[in-house]
Amino acid sequence: MNRKKVLIIIFLIAIGGAIFGFLYYSNLLKEKVKQNNPVPTPTFTPQVNNPDTWQTYNDVEYKFSIKYPLDWKKEERYMGMAVIFFSPKENDLDEFQESVNVTIEDLSWRKNKDSITLDDYAKESITSLKASLSDFKLLEGDFYVLDKNPAYKIVFSAVRNGENLKYIMIFTIRETIAYLVTYTAKENKFTDYEKIANEIIESFTPLERPTP
C-alpha cells in the first residue's frame, strides 16, 4: 500500500469515529423515541469542569497520557483509534456527541523515518484530507507546541454523511510515532465545546519509551 493511501486511511480513522458514533447513537435514539416518545429537555449548556478533578488516561501500548472530564465517555481501540472521548448527551434527542480522539501512525516502515520533518508531515496530511473529504476547507494551519513538543495545528471544516462538521487536528512526531489528536464537532456546536476540547488536547503528553 502506498504512502498516500496509508495517510488517507489514518485520517479517515481520525475523523470518522465521531461519525460512526453519530450513526450508532442515532439508531439507538430512534428506537428510544419509538418506545418512549420522550419530551425534549431544556437547552444544554456545556460546563467547563475543573481539570484538577479530571480522569487521566494512560496508554501503556502507545506511550501517551491524556486527561478528560469525568462525564465524558471513554472508548479504547475504537474504530482503529487509540482512544476517543465522547461529550455527554445534551438531551434524549441529541444525535451527535462531540468528541476528542487520539490516533497513532507508526512511521517506522518508511524509508525516510529518521528524516521526516513536521513540515513534511503537515503538508502530506493536508493533501490527504483534501483528497478524502467532501467540501474540505482549511481554516487555520500553523506550527504549535504540545506539551513542550513541536507540533502542527490545523482547523478545518468538511461535510460527512450530510453533516457540516468542524475539526481541530494537532499532530506531533515522537521518534517514529506520529500522534494525531482530533476534536470533532457539528459546525454550529463547535464553539460550545471548544474550550473543553482544547483543555483535553493540551493535557496530551507523550511518554518516554524504553531504550532498546
UniProtKB/TrEMBL annotation:
InterPro entries: Mog1/PsbP_a/b/a-sand
Keywords: Membrane, Transmembrane, Transmembrane helix
Pfam family, one: PsbP_2
SUPFAM superfamilies: Mog1p/PsbP-like (SSF55724)
Domain of life: Bacteria
Gene3D superfamilies on file: Mog1/PsbP, alpha/beta/alpha sandwich
Official protein name in the record: PsbP C-terminal domain-containing protein
Organism: Candidatus Nealsonbacteria bacterium CG23_combo_of_CG06-09_8_20_14_all_38_19
